[in-house]
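Summary of Year 1 activities. Much of the first year was spent building the evaluation harness for sequence design. The harness presents a backbone, in tokenized form, and records the residue chosen at every position. We chose the following record to illustrate the format because it has been used consistently in internal testing since the harness was completed.
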């Protein structure tokens, strides 16, 4: 009897976009830079659309504006650490001054 492959654990958090311009090019680039520091899969969902957290263009296509919520889902060996770092970045307004 074949054993089912173990599904990797995923971790998820809903985060509000707080910076003035939302998930624009610079914010998306910062998100990808942080995501790439970890051995983790990263997906971001907004308004029913899910994109890779490793894609600047994908993140921009979400069109997430200030006051809207995105769901970040991570998986893999460093999934929990990636989720903490990414939720911190988004919660801090991508470290923008506006």
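For this record, the design step produced the sequence shown next.
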């Amino acid at each position: 009897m074949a054993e089912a492959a173990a599904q990797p654990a995923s971790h998820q958090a809903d985060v509000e976009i707080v910076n003035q311009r939302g998930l624009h090019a610079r914010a998306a680039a910062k998100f990808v830079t942080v995501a790439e520091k970890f051995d983790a899969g990263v997906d971001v969902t907004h308004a029913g659309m899910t994109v890779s957290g490793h894609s600047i263009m994908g993140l921009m296509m979400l069109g997430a504006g200030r006051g809207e919520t995105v769901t970040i889902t991570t998986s893999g060996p460093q999934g929990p650490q990636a989720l903490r770092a990414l939720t911190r970045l988004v919660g801090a307004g991508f470290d923008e001054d506006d």
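The mean pLDDT is 93. Quantitative recovery figures across the full test set are reported in Table 2.
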